[in-house]
Write a structure and sequence with these properties.
With 425 residues, the chain is of the alpha+beta class. The protein has 13 helices and 24 strands.
């Protein structure tokens, strides 16, 4: 079997690591693999967004399965390009991926089918947004409708902050075309959770829920990032809550997309808020989350390869049940100093050799590269350090132990990943 991973970040490293365990005899390839992925897969010198180039390459090499990690290729139509050539690919079409690439589309879809979410309005003109914000109580959340690498949602505690956020997006194009349309919505109180659903378009199998830590500072303060860490499992994800999530959120959305001739096949990721009125949707994504994938995938007690192949080939996953190994996982993300703002790259990284020999501590690369013979930083989020343990305390201790065994100038991270579960008060 020949498997191609599209993408080269921490999520893709985790996917490659898991799939190699599921299919040790398979031949693996990855687009411009980062230094952590390179020993595990042959490199393909094509950009993840080069759909035509990748489809031609995959056809020529007889690729059995392509798994797409990041959202940009999916929004750009890589799945349609592969399917035209009869190539099995795991991920939704660009029309189905609008659930992430257009927050306005997602909110309108939820409103139409009655999926619980925050009240909202969408705007393309600054004057209209300004008038609306001035008339509504704070806090408010101002979001770029398009893809903004997880940093396009701004929680605003005052009217002035909301006005500034909306003006920067609509007038100054702080997020480029992603902010040409914005969503202004009510702030929801509660605790967040991330739930991935493997789906063939009709049936869905929910994976182990996790909790992401989006904001850069300790105690969930400061601006949003692509994710500073995550942990799984989470106590608030009871069987009853997950039944509600499946029946009242996933299935109505999947039915609506299928009914609009845009069936969603792949991973549908629901970012949820657990509120006193029940779970509500914060946002949808069209792929595995990062940094959540790095804690969910290592806890799988089953192969994920078989359902991915079934979905990629147009088959059904009806009746598929996924088992978990009972452990906990916690991911501390190491970032470059200054992230999510301006930061410098090219800082030499040292990783203690013994970290590579442990099965209770995993290091997934994201923003790294080789510079001559030196491993250096190459992005805002640099490494995911995942501790595994019998409980969350043990997983956290191992993750932080790994953090201490890695060094680079400007290394930044949160020490409190999992704080809600570890200090319930």
């Amino acid at each position: 079997m020949k498997i191609l991973i599209v993408g080269h970040g921490g999520r893709e490293h985790a996917l490659l690591w898991k799939l190699r365990r599921d299919a040790p005899s398979a031949e693996f390839f990855a687009t411009r693999p980062n230094p952590g992925m390179a020993p595990l897969a042959q490199g393909v010198d094509l950009a993840p967004t080069d759909a035509e180039g990748l489809a031609s390459w995959a056809e020529g090499r007889g690729i059995s399965l392509t798994v797409v990690g990041p959202e940009q290729p999916l929004a750009g139509g890589i799945v349609e390009t592969f399917r035209k050539r009869g190539l099995p690919i795991f991920g939704p079409t660009s029309t189905a991926a609008r659930i992430e690439s257009s927050k306005a589309f997602a909110k309108e879809l939820m409103e139409r089918v009655g999926v619980p979410t925050a009240g909202y309005r969408c705007f393309r003109r600054w004057a209209d947004a300004e008038a609306y914000i001035r008339e509504h109580p704070v806090p408010l959340v101002v979001k770029a409708s398009g893809l903004a690498a997880g940093k396009g949602a701004i929680i605003c505690s005052t009217v002035e902050e909301a006005l500034e956020a909306a003006r920067e997006m609509l007038e100054e194009r702080a997020f480029g075309d992603a902010g040409a349309e914005i969503v202004v919505e009510e702030f929801m109180e509660g605790e967040e959770l991330s739930v991935f659903g493997l789906t063939d378009g009709r049936h869905v199998s929910l994976l182990l829920p996790s909790q992401d830590h989006k904001r850069v500072g300790e105690g969930d303060t400061g601006p949003n990032t692509g994710g500073m860490g995550a942990y799984a499992p989470i106590a608030l994800a009871s069987d009853e809550l997950l039944r509600t999530v499946k029946e009242d959120i996933f299935l109505p959305i999947l039915d609506a997309l299928e009914g609009s001739a845009s069936p969603f096949r792949g991973v549908l990721y629901a970012g949820l808020m657990s509120t006193p009125a029940g779970p509500k949707v914060v946002e949808f994504n069209c792929r595995f989350g990062d940094p959540e994938a790095q804690v969910v995938l290592p806890l799988l007690d089953d192969s994920i390869l078989e359902p991915l192949v079934a979905v990629a080939r147009g088959g059904s996953i009806a009746g598929v049940e996924i088992r978990w190994d009972g452990r906990s996982a916690l991911n501390t993300v190491l970032t470059s100093q200054g992230y999510p703002g301006a930061y410098e790259t090219g800082r030499a990284i040292t990783i203690a050799p013994e970290l590579q020999e442990r099965d209770d501590l995993l290091v997934f690369h994201a923003g790294t590269r080789w510079e001559d013979d030196t491993l250096v930083t190459a992005g805002g989020r640099v490494l995911s350090v995942v501790g595994l343990g019998q409980d969350l305390e043990e997983a956290r201790a191992r993750s932080l132990e790994g953090v201490e065994a890695i060094a680079f100038e400007g290394k930044s991270y949160r020490t409190d990943i999992g704080w809600r579960a570890l200090t319930p008060s």
